[in-house]
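Practice record 12: protein with adenosine-5'-triphosphate.
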Amino acid sequence: MKDIILTGDRPTGNLHIGHYVGSVRTRLAIQEKGGYDKFYIMIADTQALTDNAKNVDKVTNNVIQVVIDYLSAGIDPEKTCIFIQSQVPELFEITSYFMNLVTVARLKRNPTVKSEIAMRGFENTLPVGFFCYPISQAADILAFNANIIPVGGDQMPMVEQTREIASSFNSTYGEVFTLPKGVLPEIKACERLPGTDGKLKMSKSVGNCIYLKDSPEEIKKKIMGAYTDPDHIKVSDPGKIQGNVVFTYLDAFCTDEHFKKYLPEYNNLEELKNHYKKGGLGDVKVKLFLNNVLQEILTPIREKRAFFEQNVDKIYEMLFKNSEIASKEARKTLEKMKEKMALNYKTISKK
Ligand code: ATP
Ligand code: MG
């Protein structure tokens, strides 16, 4: 069986470098390699509304922003099916059948939901929709029978829960679903890139991000203000790498080639880290190196953005067309589910 890939993002803001290394880079590698059956990329507007119900404009306005970010980063609409979640009504129906297969206790155990509830201060104001979003995410994946799900580390519990839901459906009503597999980035630092503040993961909802569309000045300003090692006060002091976001970003982005180009006194990141740990290497020097690396990677993306910003109508056309394709595909799965659940009354009554 050829692979069916599904992945997505919430349209709550522009894409940041955490998305790039956590999921977009994996997508680009899959797209480059080819040989898959289908590759869906979903803009999860319905999911974004679960914690932005009174902020609909923010969600709807960001749909096009996220798609422009994809295209600028190199996602090819000829090789992928980019669609909008809310335009595929079958997903709601599938979600509601899945809801009967999941306990409240199981949802409460989901570690990502737990930390997102705390982060959003939802202890006493938790919307039911938000609490249940892992179930709707399972519907998004299973509606297309996707088997490969490129995600950042925070989404692995969702893929796990999706596998449970698929198994539960199959054993309760009959085989419909294959069990999907989450694919994490190859580099550990990319699974959960921290924000520039060094506290939480880089996240649109927290605002601790370096965005793909940031200007060169914004990128530099954010890097120069990024969290390093608070005990590394004098250049001569030994410094810590652990928890130092500047080094985490270098882990995620820099190659030996970057050293040759921008910091030839070191051969590789290992040597730079060793010098920092020993003492005698200032934060500013490391930050300026990181700035060179990130500017090199982000400049072509930002330049392509200018072109796509002039073609918004065409992009929407592509999204509507693809959403119809996705809807037809999801309907096929829904029909199969209803048949197994004996909800196919019309077919039965004709017999
Ligand atoms: P929000 O704050 O609205 O939840 P977000 O920044 O967390 O936004 P999502 O749209 O929830 O972004 O995530 C989209 C994809 O990007 C997911 O696969 C997620 O795992 C991945 N991702 C998000 N943030 C990071 C990060 N900091 N590091 C690595 N991957 C990430
Ligand atoms: Mg998120």
